[in-house]
Design goal:
Order of helices and strands: HHHH
Structural class: mainly alpha
Radius of gyration: 12 Å
Strand content: under 5%
């Protein structure tokens, strides 16, 4: 949910500033961008 917010507001605010306010690590956000679904969720949807 937090990463989705950051992604939607990227044009308006700096990613690092939003991560700081939402108390998440920027590295976690960038990892989420590469693979937004966790392993379990991707298994449930049939993606590998």
């Amino acid at each position: 949910m937090r990463y989705t917010f950051i992604e939607k507001h990227r044009p308006m605010f700096a990613i690092r500033a939003m991560c700081r306010c939402l108390r998440v690590h920027p590295s976690g956000f960038y990892a989420w961008l590469k693979n937004p679904l966790c392993k379990r969720a991707s298994e449930d949807t049939g993606q590998t």
